[in-house]
Write a structure and sequence with these properties.
Shape: elongated
Helix content: over 70%
Mean pLDDT: 86
Distance between the termini: 17 Å
Oligomer: single chain
Order of helices and strands: HHHHH
Low-confidence stretches: none
């Protein structure tokens, strides 16, 4: 849910009010970083959910992968 919510954070907290409008490159860079980070959060969460059943059955490879993604 945090990954999905993070897509809307810039608008909710008015990030652009703190930046001068003449720095369009900075605004575009912040948008891309936010979108990529949101996609990473959402994608890794979906992978963890999809592999949850396999991890509960104590599959070693899935446990290692699940632990790595959880720590990241």
């Amino acid at each position: 849910m945090v990954g999905l919510w993070h897509f809307f954070v810039p608008r909710m907290f008015n990030w652009y009010d703190y930046l001068p409008m003449q720095y369009e490159n900075l605004i575009v860079g912040i948008d891309y970083v936010n979108y990529c980070f949101s996609a990473l959060l959402l994608g890794s969460s979906l992978v963890l959910i999809l592999l949850g059943k396999s991890a509960l059955s104590l599959n070693y490879e899935t446990l290692v992968f699940h632990t790595m993604l959880t720590l990241i």
